[in-house]
Amino acid sequence: MAANEITSAEYIKHHLTNLTFGNHPVHGWSFAHTAEEAKEMGFWAIHVDTMFWSLGLAALFAYYFYKAAQKASAGVPGPLQNFVEMIVDFVNDNVRGSFSGENPLVAPLAMTIFVWIFLMNLMDLVPVDLIPYVAGDHGVGIAHFMKVVPSTDPNVTFAMALGVFFLIIYYSIKIKGVSGFIGELTGMPFQTSNLLLKPFTVVINLILEGVNLLAKPVSLSLRLFGNMYAGEMIFILISLMYSAGWAMGIFGGGLQFVWAVFHVLVITLQAFIFMVLTIVYLDMAHAEHH
Amino acid sequence: MNINLTLIAQLASFAVFVWFTMKFIWPPLVKAMDERKAKIADGLAAAERGQHEQELARERAAQYLHEAKQQAAEITAKAEKQAALIVEDAKSKAQEEGARQLAAAQAEIEQEVNKAREELRSKVAELAVAGAEKILRREIDAEAHKDIVESVAGQI
Q1: In angstroms, what separates the C-alpha of A97 from chain B's closest C-alpha?
Q2: Fewer CB within 10 A of the terminal residue: chain B, N end or C end?
Q3: Is B150 helix (H, G, I), strand (E, B) or coil?
Q4: Is B3 in the A-facing interface, judged by CB distances under 8 Å?
């Protein structure tokens, strides 16, 4: 991207806009051509790039793991099975360490979260201009916008966190019953036997525990989104340096390498944190408070 | 950056993938790993057992060897003793035989001597009688002096 064609702000904005397909009030059902158009589409729009990359990566994950699972035997494992079993073992260890209840859903859920988030984050290491350039107006021209890192789309992180949140509510009610769950929300941390004070403590407890409960999905999703969004932003800023002369370009190349190496840690860590917190939250949902 | 329908679509696909993992990926993998774990544990136990058995067999073999050596030593000792006995026996038998043969030989010799003496005696008597006959032919009758001649011959 030459600097005389578009400004840096436009470049960044371009990179942060999803390929959105939706019902625009003026243009009807169409792809958005500007970030403003995407915004004007409101709720009834879909990020085609996010869906494509996240589902593609999930399919990749499902395909290889399914293949390994089909061939799984107690004999000597092949390379793919070895790799898959290493991940399974890793997730299993974490679930056993943090989750005290009995639930066949938790470990597969944790593995899906870990592998999927890791793969989505991994897309961050692809040079920011590569895929948008190939798919965009300068390449095959099928997409005006292209964000290849699905986890920098809050829709993705919020969808996962909401999924976990629903499971927390579901298991809280299933294990403790409706009254137990409400009692947990209203009966703590302040307790009183005075009937006059009771309404006050109930309200205060409800506020505190409600915030506590709602903070779980919000913090889960925003932590992942914030980390990935910031990392992506830095990659975009570094790639801006390539249009500022050869000295800055070389410096930028070095920076991109260093940041990518550091980011390897971040993407793994974020996937791991999301997984562990999911396990811990579900463990709390299963645990009876006394 | 906009929250929109993508959220719902992602939620649905998330649910589908979790379901898929739970249904088709997780159970066979965990089952295979558990089975392998059991198999390895069995193998290790078997190896341990084998080692133990080998140890026992080695001890047993050493014991057998020891016993065999002892038996061999016993047998050799016995054989030696018997050999000595046999030699001793043979020696005494030989001595006995020697003595017996010596005695027989002596007896035979004596017999021969007696016989010879008898013969000699008879011959001498005859000779003496013949001599005397010749003498007495000139002087005396052989019949008349027979008793004297016989008594002389009997003194030999």
Answers
A1: 17
A2: C
A3: helix
A4: yes
